[in-house]
Amino acid sequence: MDLRFFTNEGRRDTADRLHLPVRKGWHLLAGVRRAVARLEQQRWFLPAVAAFFLLATIRILSSNLPLPLGAFSLLGLFLQVAFLLGALYAYVRALQPKEVRRPRSLVLLGAILLVVLLLNRYALVVITSLHQSFPHIPLPAMRAALPVPLGGVLLTVLFNARLAFAGSLVLTVLMGIMLAAPIDYVLFTFVGSLVSVFTLAGRQRRTAFFRAGGVLGLANAYTLVALAFVDGTINALPAEVVAGLLNGAIVAVLATGLLPLLEHSFGRTTDFTLLELSNLNEPMLKHLVLVAPGSYHHSIMVGTLAEAAAEAVGANALLSRVGAYYHDIGKTRHAAYFIENQSDALNRHDKLAPSLSRAIVMSHVKEGVEMARAYGLPEVLVDLIPQHHGTRLMTYFYQRAKEKADPNLQEVKEEEYRYPGPKPQTREAAILMLADAVEAAARTLTDPTPARIQGAVQKIINGIFVDGQLDECDLTLRDLHRIANSFVRILTGIFHHRVDYPGIQLQDFGKKRNENGDQPPKPAKEGPRRDAVAKKGGGKGAVRAGTPDGGV
Which residues constitute the domain of residue 62? Predict the structure, then answer.
């Protein structure tokens, strides 16, 4: 930061640089999110919430049932509901990823089912009143407008299509029990839910709700026509078709309003939120480009590499890209101590002890986590900040410390020069670690030919693999091979050669600078193994035995 001309404008510019940006969001629900996060750590929390949801569901269903045998009918209802909810829980525990099995996610799942049942129960009261006022409209036609597919829509966006399929099945059966409806109604609501799930899967815009609502309305009309022709009752078909079309609009409006409340209350991050955070006009990203422009450009490049690699292995490409944008925001606290932000030839670490340099560089992880939480980033993005370094060794400062230390007086421990971790826990975090290291290494190549790029990418991935940084994530050797190929493809396109422009002798300019006393750039030091790989044009496999120098 240049403070030589410290005018009023300079003071304001300095304040803007040092001021931590604030993100506009749902701050009122932050207390609910923190409370849920604290409660889920208690052992009694999940059983207590499960009992509450079970009893609340029975209460909602029984409010519309006659229960002719009294306590015995209530017991039968209890057994049915317990079986359905228990089967859904067993499905989640057996077939859903670790993130969905968390207590917080299970509470959100139960809350969605309960909210949809409550909305349909009150909608049923409204329908009954309307039928008394307009008796010429058949009651089955009005029931066709009940927003039962809302559950499938919310589950698809907040979780995934597979869980939405199972949840929609449970929800339609529960609605059939509450209405004592024939199998035709259960089939009608289940078909609508499935169509909503398939329409929304993979969509990343909030307008997709209305598109899904339109498709849902058409699916409802199609199903009602088919059922009417089978039963031979077509007198009420026009009214039922209108109600089915209206059903799609009601579901779209309710989903648009309920999604932000559920998302921010339970700390769930959807693709819609990630897309909003990927906007480069976000205050935190503008703060990053203002204070640490080199780190900003590095983050953008890492995002491109991570997104391509995630698409190659079937991981969440959007999460990988957005996580890369924010993974180095902690560098804004001490931007001048990172090489990509040093515009002059002066390296501030030359006059510092290796231990102090290590502390400054390592602090960007802790400070990045603090800034991300203060800014209101989702936890799934906050977790990527420490995991993208894992427990890797800061090789440069470690070697400097060994060179300067007196072996007779002190011993330089390798553990002191490793990042605190944890190691990557997800495929997205591992991809971010690989992309971060590869992008930094690619900048050191003096002649970035495709063969040299491939050799450098292989060496970096091999080093991280041998160092054990990928032991706690789900990446396979085949995945690493695909990731390496995607990195090479992207980097080759970035570092492609261009023809010399007529009349502009860039090489002469470089010679004149050297003659004026400027130091020419030193070529990157490359070992004989990388040279051998480069001469051979690289290997076919991306995972081969390599040097375990875990860091760039």
Answer: 28-268
Is the separation of the CB atoms in 191 and 223 below 8 Å? yes
* Rounded Cα distance, 330 and 259, in Å: 31
306 and 394, same domain (yes or no): yes
Q: Is 5 inside a domain boundary?
A: no
Is there a domain that residue 150 lies in? yes
Domain end, chosen from 268, 283, 298, is at 268
Same domain, yes or no, for 421 and 313?
A: yes
Last residue of a domain, one of 224, 247, 268: 268
User: What sign has the CA pseudo-torsion 462, 467, 468, 469?
Assistant: negative
Give CA–CA dist 533/530, Å, rounded: 5
Euclidean distance between CA atoms 449 and 446, whole angstroms: 9
pTM: 0.81
Residue 507 lies in a domain: no
pLDDT tens series, the chain, 552 aa: 444 444 555 444 444 555 677 766 556 677 777 788 888 888 899 999 999 999 999 999 999 988 888 899 999 999 999 999 999 999 999 999 888 999 989 999 999 999 999 999 999 999 999 988 888 888 888 999 999 999 999 999 999 999 999 999 999 999 999 999 889 999 999 999 999 999 998 777 778 899 999 999 999 999 999 999 998 888 889 999 999 999 999 999 999 999 988 988 888 889 888 999 999 999 999 999 999 999 999 999 999 999 999 999 999 999 999 999 999 999 999 898 898 888 766 778 888 888 899 999 999 999 999 999 888 898 899 999 999 999 999 998 999 898 888 777 778 888 999 999 899 999 999 999 999 999 999 988 888 889 999 999 999 999 999 999 999 998 999 999 999 999 999 999 988 766 666 765 555 544 444 434 444 444 444 444 434 434 444 443 333 333 334 443
Query: 3-class secondary structure for 275-317?
Result: HHHCCCCCHHHHHHHHHCHHHHHHHHHHHHHHHHHHHHHCCCH
